[in-house]
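Re-run with default settings, no changes from the original entry. Doing this only to confirm the output is reproducible before filing.
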Amino acid sequence: MSLLPRWEVLTEDAKIIIKRIGISALVLIFSLWIIRALIPWVLVVLVGYWIFKWLSK
């Protein structure tokens, strides 16, 4: 006997909730993946801006 109820015996409301949680988890993982890829570029831009400000004094 499994700990999780089988999909066939779940109510429609429970199925909708599970689908929403799954979609939210996928969106969160995708967003974190995008942000993780952009962090080095943001740091490069910030350092470049600080160097530009320092040199323009």
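Residues 12-55 form the longest helix (44 residues). The chain has a mean pLDDT of 90.
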